[in-house]
Amino acid sequence: MAAPTPSVQPATRVADAPLPKADIYIWLTVSPRPFAPLLLLFVPGETDTLPMTTRTRKTSYTCRECGHTMPKWVGQCPRCEAWNSVEEAPSLPPLSGAKGGVQRTSSSALSSNLVRPVPLNEILVSERSRVPSGISELDRVLGGGFVPGSTILLAGDPGIGKSTLLLQAAAGVSGSGSGRVIYATGEESQDQIKLRAERLGISQEGLFVVPTGDVVSLGMLVDELNSSLLVVDSVQTAWHSGIDGAPGTIGQVRQSAAELGAFARQNGVAVVLAGHVTKEGSIAGPKVLEHVVDVVLHMEGGSGTPLRLLRGVKNRHGATDELGVFEMTGSGLQDVKEPSAMFLSQRQQGASGSAVATVIEGTRPLTVEVQALVTPTPAASPRRTANGYDLARLHLLIAVISKRLNFPLGSNDVVVNIAGGLKISEPAADLAVALAIVSSFMDVPVREGWSASGEIGLGGELRAVHQAARRAGEISRLGFERCLLPKGCEELGENAPSVVRAATLAEAVMAAIPVSAQAGG
Question: What are phi and psi of 298, to 5 degrees?
C-alpha cells in the first residue's frame, strides 16, 4: 500500500481553525531569527486544531535605575539615560492561556476564576484605624501612622539611619499595644540587632527578630504570631524560592515586594521595606519599586551633620512632599519640634549674601536661610554651584538678574547654598535666592527682619505663591517684621506681619536692599 501523500497547509492558517482529514501535516512558520523558516511535522491525535508553537523562556534586560525593560542589552537606558545600568533579567514563562502559551483554555473553564466587576456605589469600605509609630515626625510624613494593608518603602543611603528609625518605630508599635511586630533582617544577625536595641533603650516583649529574607517564611510567621507590622531590612536581601536569581537582583526584588504587598492587602498587615541606594544610585530598590508600593519615603542628610530629613515622595494614604525633621543622637533619632528655628539658629546677622525664604513642604511651612557668594573670576567660563537648590533654576535666575537688572554676573562665580542641608524645589524660593545673589554682588546685606517668597519669571516679574497666609504666619511666629511678597498674592489676616508687595524683581531689590538704587542701570 502506497504511503499517503502529505498535505501542505498554508502558514497563514489560524491556530484554532479546523483541519482537513489527513495523516501528516507540514506547517511552515518563521522562527525568531530573521529569514530562518521552520518546517514542522504534526501528526494529529485526538485534537483537531493546529498546535501553538511552544516558546522557550526569553531573556529581557531591565534598567536598575528606573525599571525600564527592553528586549536587548544597551549601554545607556533610553528612558532615564543612565549608563551601564542595564542588567539581564530572565522573564517568567507565559501562563497557560496567555498569548504565546502552550495550550488554550476554554471560556467555560475560565469563568469559574473570573473576577466579577462590582458597581462603584456598592463597594463597602472598611474603616481601618492607623497604627501610630510613637515617633511624631514619622507619623506626620505617613499621614498619622501605618495603615493596615499598606506597603511602605523607606529608601536612603547606607548608614544614614534607616535601620535605627525602623527599629524605633517597631518598638513604638509593639510598646503601644497595637500588636506584635516582626523585624526581619537578612543583613545583620540577631546579636547585632540586640546590641542596637540596647543602645536605643528598646526591650519590648512584643518585638520579634527574624534573621531571614524568605518572603514565604515571613508570611507564615506573620500568620502564626498574628502580627500587625512586618519590617523587612532590607528589600535587597529578600528572596522568593519560585524566582531564579540571587537576592538583590531586579527579578527577586520585584517579586518579593509584589508578594509582600499582596500579603499585606489580603491580611491587613502593614509592611515596611528598607531599600539601599548606593553612591551610583544602583541596586534595585527605590526606583524599581516605586510603582509597587503604596508609600515611598526618602531619608536625606549629609555625613557631616546630625540632621536627617524624611521626605514623603509618594503616599496613597496621605499628603505627598511631607517633610519630617530628625536629629541623630547617641540614643537614636530624635524629633525636631522647631525645624525653622533650627535652620536659622546659626545665621549671621548683618552679613551680605544672606536672605530668608519661607517655603511649604507638604503641609508644613519652613523658614530657611539662603546663602550666596558672588566673586570675580579670571576664567572664561565662570562656575555656577548650587547646594540644596536646582542648578538649572540658578542659571535661569542669573540670566534674569543680568538682563533685567543690568548686573554683570557673566564674569563672576556664583555659589548658592541652602543652610542646614535642606533641598528646596519650590519656585517660591526664587526671590530669596535672587536677593542673596544681588546682596553678595553689591556686598550690602538684606534688611534685617525681612523674609521673601516669590517666583520669578523670565521677564523679571514676580508671580504669586500659594498659601501666602501660612508663610506670613510662620515668619510672624519667629519674630520677623516684614514679609516681601508678590502683588498677586492673597490678602493676609489681621495678625500677619507687615507686608511689602512688589510687582517686579527690580522693585523687590529696591525695597529689600537699602542702596540698590545706586547700583546697576
Answer: -125, 125
Residue 416 buriedness (CB in 10 A; 0-12 / 13-18 / 19+): buried
* Cα–Cα distance measured from residue 172 to residue 181, given in angstroms and rounded to the nearest whole number: 10
Against a cut of 0.90, is the pTM above it?
no
Q: Are strands 86-90 and 180-185 parallel, antiparallel or unpaired?
A: unpaired
Measured between its terminal Cα atoms, the distance across the chain in Å is: 109
Q: Which amino acid is at 466?
A: H
Cβ atoms of residues 306 and 330 within 8 Å: no
Nearest CA to 171 out of 161, 187, 183, 153 is that of 183
Is the CB of residue 124 less than 8 Å from the CB of residue 79? Answer: no
Going by their DSSP bridges, the two strands 69-70 and 59-63 should be labelled as antiparallel
8-state DSSP, 256 = H
Peptide bond just before 303 cis, omega within 30 deg? no
CA angle 497, 503, 504 (to 5 degrees): 115
Q: Which of 478, 489, 366, 473 is nearest to 425 (CA)?
A: 366
Q: How many other C-beta atoms are found inside a 10 Å radius of the C-beta of residue 118?
A: 9
Estimate to the nearest angstrom the gap between the alpha carbon of 133 and the chain centroid: 21
CB 130 within 8 A of CB 97: no
DSSP letter (8 states) at residue 248:
T
CA distances from 493 to 73, 438, 472, 476 (A): 60, 31, 9, 12
Between residues 496 and 238, which one has the greater pLDDT?
A: 238
For the chain, what is the mean pLDDT?
Answer: 82
Given a cut of 80, whether residue 1 has pLDDT beyond it is no
